[in-house]
Amino acid sequence: MNIKTFKQGLRLPTRKTATEGKPVETIPAPKQVVIPINQHFGAPNRVLVAVGDHVKRGQKIADAVKPGSLGAPVHASVAGIVRKTEQHLQSNNTDGLCVYIEADAERALTDTAFMPPLDAFACSKDEAVARVRDAGIVGMGGAGFPTHVKLSPPPGKHIDTIIANGAECEPYLTIDEASMVEKTSLLIKGIAIVMRITGVQNAVVGMEDNKASLVPALEQEIRSAGLEGKVSIGLCRTRYPQGGEKLLISALTGRETPSGGLPMDAGCIVSNVGTFIAIAEAFDMGKPLVDRDLTVSGSACKTPKNIRAPIGAMLTDLPQCFMDVDYENLHKILFGGPMMGTSVPTLEIPIQKNTSGVILMTREETASYAEGVCIRCGRCIRRCSCRLSPVLMNIALNTGDLDEAVRAGLMDCIECGACAYICPARIKLTQRFRVGKQLLRAKRQAESAAR
């Protein structure tokens, strides 16, 4: 099979051996879940339940303030009693409104309010898109973009390729690989459902060549589903950040997403493999997105593994056999991967729809350096997967010239961290670009308000 890739990027130590090949273990229901009501990109939700209400697993507990706005509903992940709604620290290091549910000790996972199954190949397109929205499905690779919006591109956007993103290029993380092994049929069915909704006749499962052992099982399932010639496997070189959707599009189709554009501008819809699996479950079982599969790893984790947990569960509530932490040597906690994940101050943070992993790192796995002076070596330019000029963006931001930073490519930066990783001066480039984007948004909002 031809191995494809994109230009530039990094070759990183994968550090996946601790959980590679391990099955996904379902944890027991925790005594309490803390469910953020906003776990998506878009308009905010409002709480639909009151303190003292008994809710069932799969019952909708939050939805959009304005009907039809960009968003996705949130559901109870366990059956139990709503104890309170208040602010709680989330994995993005901001406080957000959460619903606290005390789980029913006996029926936490069995007392359900799932939707009735729906035949995705017999219902109308509108009914199918509504089912994806009602299930609260969002992108599970990290961004949390509502999936039903992706499946309804605006007029004039011609989509001819569906890409299931199984690259999983971040070190440590192996949950996508485990999901593809255990839920191969659901993955292919989810792809078939999306093809039916969008009318697209070509789909690709994209993954790095360190997962080549999965190809025979995927091809067998494609043949069993009668999708030969329509769904193919695209192996890409193991290279960071191969899982970035624009880079995966480039590797698999040879197309370049235009500056400031989205995958649909390159004729593609890209979603994480977990999202396709969730879509299949929403139709076959009527199951909303109430569980999250994730990798728990790092040298400060004595029991690295892939787990399935109710959304809103906190790692501190898990039994020791599922989460045994070496607190004496724990130095850093990451939600997500080590390159693009977020460092958080505590484990008292709930698992969300887009939590792909939690990495518990010792001091030996982390490093902190004082920033030096940029020597204009150009390494950041040579390694930037988006072919931007990080050095010029940094100079512009240091002088407060946001417009020049935009011209140098600020808004096209995917914040992969490759430039900061390779910088010999240890300049925290990615962090500066994130702050620069926030400053730019604030400036544009102020200008809009003034007009």
Question: Could you name the key traits of this structure?
Answer:
6-stranded mixed β-sheet; 4-stranded antiparallel β-sheet; 451 residues; Rossmann fold; alpha/beta; 17 strands; 12 helices; globular
Walk me through this protein's architecture.
This protein has 451 residues and is α/β, with parallel strands linked by helices. Among the domains are: 125-284, NADH-ubiquinone oxidoreductase 51kDa subunit (Rossmann fold); 379-450, no CATH class. The chain is 25% helix and 19% strand. It is built from 12 helices and 17 strands. A 6-stranded mixed β-sheet has the order 1-14-13-17-15-16. Strands 2-8-7-4 form a 4-stranded antiparallel β-sheet, with no helix packed on it. A 4-stranded parallel β-sheet has the order 11-10-9-12, sandwiched between helices. A hairpin with a 5-residue loop joins strand 7 (80-89) and strand 8 (95-103). The longest helix has 22 residues, at 429-450. It is globular and about 60 Å long. The mean pLDDT is 93.
Reconstruct the topology from this structure.
Elements (H helix, E strand, L loop, with lengths): L23 E3 L5 E5 L8 E3 L6 E2 L4 E5 L9 E2 L4 E10 L5 E9 L21 H10 L12 H4 L10 E5 L9 H8 L1 H15 L4 E6 L6 H10 L6 E6 L8 H9 L14 E5 H12 L6 E7 L7 E6 L21 E4 L6 E3 L12 E5 L17 H5 L6 H9 L3 H6 L10 H5 L6 H22 L1
Parallel strand pairs: 1-14, 9-10, 9-12, 10-11, 13-17
Antiparallel strand pairs: 2-8, 3-5, 4-7, 5-6, 7-8, 13-14, 15-16, 15-17
